[in-house]
Design a protein that fits this description.
The chain is an alpha+beta fold. The chain has helices at about 15-30, 40-50, 90-110, 210-215; strands spanning about 30-35, 60, 80, 110-120, 130, 140-150, 160-165, 170-175, 180-185, 190-195, 200-210. The structure holds 2-oxoglutaric acid and fe (ii) ion.
Length: about 220
């Protein structure tokens, strides 16, 4: 039986003002949010099929940028492909993230200027050790996002995202990487790690950035 070509028709959607209100409130009070019903399940299915596109050249992710870039499998083992609206599903995804950008700027004056994101595939047993996505004043990444694309993830499979408090390194939240779940957190404030899993793990990680000119520092080569 042929499966329907769902990836041809991912639905377009508008993020409700009430969802943006809740997201903004959570960022102000907690610094992070976990949202489960923002994305249409059909779009999530389409985004999962992006990983099978022949034009997506997955590279082993590294640490650092430009000349400082190194692959370090003892730190992270994911394989990534940058997202640039290669398909209707990717365009829809970026459209939703654009609505979140505008919605948060209107509510919190965050000055979010653009958004970069990549598909991330963690082979079985791989992980991403505890890290910060941005260091104060040294990066233009201000808000991290992760959208999970894993259907029927059971709680014994591992692969959780663990968020820690910056002050005392206590576990703040363990997030199961379930399809459709979006995690948003302030990039400078939460050390986090991805635990190894007994199955392949699919997600889209992204970062809202402020304009480097207004941040005062050019995105550093690291
Ligand atoms: O996939 C996740 O849960 C988090 C990924 C992450 O921390 C990163 O790519 O910087
Ligand atoms: Fe991260």
């Amino acid at each position: 039986m042929r499966l329907p070509q769902i990836d041809q028709h991912p639905p377009d959607s508008t993020v409700a003002e009430s969802v943006l209100d809740q997201l903004a409130d959570a960022l102000v009070s907690e610094g992070y949010a976990v949202v489960d019903d923002l994305f249409d399940p059909l779009l999530i299915q389409s985004l999962r099929t992006e990983f099978d596109r022949p034009d997506c050249q997955f590279k082993t992710a590294g640490i650092g940028r430009d000349q400082a870039f190194t692959v370090a499998r003892d730190i992270r083992g994911d394989r990534i492909c940058w997202l640039e609206g290669q398909s209707l599903a990717a365009t829809r995804f970026l459209g939703i993230m654009g609505q979140i950008q505008i919605g948060l700027n209107q509510r919190l004056f965050m000055g979010l200027f653009d958004y970069e994101s990549h598909l991330a595939f963690y082979p079985v047993g791989t992980f991403y050790k505890k890290h910060l996505d941005a260091f104060k004043g040294r990066s233009n990444r201000v808000l991290s996002t992760v959208l999970y694309l894993n259907t029927q993830w059971d709680c014994y499979a591992g692969g959780e995202l663990v968020l820690y408090t910056r002050a005392d390194d206590a576990v703040l939240q363990r997030v199961v990487p379930l399809a459709g779940r979006l995690v948003v957190f302030l990039s400078e404030d939460f050390p986090h790690e991805v635990l190894p899993a007994t199955r392949e793990r699919y997600s889209i990680a992204g970062w809202f950035r402020v304009n480097t000119n207004t941040a005062g520092v050019v995105d550093p080569p690291e």
